[in-house]
Amino acid sequence: MSSVPRNRDTSEAQRAAERHALAMAEAMAEHRRAMLGLRGSRGGMCLANGLNVSIVPLDGDYDLDAALIRGLLAAPSGHSMRAAPAPSSSGGGAGGRSALERYLYPDDPTAEVRTWERVGQEMPGATYGAGNLLGNTASAAGGVLQGLGERSGRVAMDRGIAAILSRQAQRVVLAPGVELYNSAQPKQPPRVRLRVRNLPIADIRAMVPTPGGPVTQWRVNGAATASTLKVRGMTSQQLRQTAVLVGQERLPAALRWAGTKTGGGVLAFAPSAALDLYSSVEVDAFGRRQVNWQQFGIASAKSQSGNAAGFFTGVGITWAAGAVGGAALAASAPVLLLALGAGILVQVAWNASGGADWAARQAAGALQ
Known about the structure:
Blueprint: H1 12-37, E1 42-43, H2 66-74, E2 81-82, H3 99-104, H4 116-128, H5 133-165, E3 171-175, E4 178-182, E5 192-197, H6 201-207, E6 219-220, E7 226-230, H7 236-250, H8 253-258, H9 261-279, E8 281-283, E9 289-291, H10 293-330, H11 333-352, H12 355-367
Antiparallel strand pairs: 1-2, 3-4, 4-5, 5-7, 6-7, 8-9
Helix pairs in contact: 4-11, 5-7, 5-9, 5-11, 9-10, 10-11, 10-12
């Protein structure tokens, strides 16, 4: 049986169709490689090329590429595609996220605003959430240690005064840079003075004011590196104020910095800013990363509005305490802990009343 040879000549139209088919096959292969390369990323991604990827179950009949479906089945989560986890999700559930991801980017509250249920949902984030943990921990530790320092400092002062008057000691250190000493000559009766080193005299006078005549005033040495005060004429209020100063100087340097307006502001706003920036990083189908500044602005308005409400509440309380009772009252442990607690409650109230959502809407409208 003989076969008739086929005519292998093709027309120009057929050759053009083959070229287009080859180009399409190459484009599909490149798309397949790009999709498979993204299978290790996280859910909730918004691609730079306009694709929005969401977590939706496939419950219909689909003709999927064999290589692609093998890659999807092999992926640990079965969905992808964001450089950073989505900041929140109102759908509820963990969505396959790790415990760390759920802590850094918890789900949005589901309760209605201005309800006690919503207050309960907002309280953990304002108390020990990722954006507030560092600042609240520093403030709480500073307040507790300040209180312990004040109490032990007052005891140390009483014992130090007694030791110097009984000639058992010539100098008693209360805290770094704060001490009691005997200013009398060898054959004279003991005279106890309080000495504070390396603090500006204006700060010392603000902490321990000295009303009265010249005898009861602070004395500053020629180099302005130390200030002294006669203990015998000190009032009970001045002794309490000195105990606050002793407690403050006993704090670790990091906690003293955290208690300043600069340190407190950094700890109040920087962690949330870092989290919002990370969650706003997007990656396209070719692995290129870029910051979605619009998303960052909206996320910052939502998180930082509550932080600002809590921070400035605490600042207002310490300012009011200073205006009423001086710098020593403002730096005392009760005021520090009151400012922390009130700041947390105001932040919870702001978020639970819908203030954070309102700020996000305003930012979204302004950034359109």
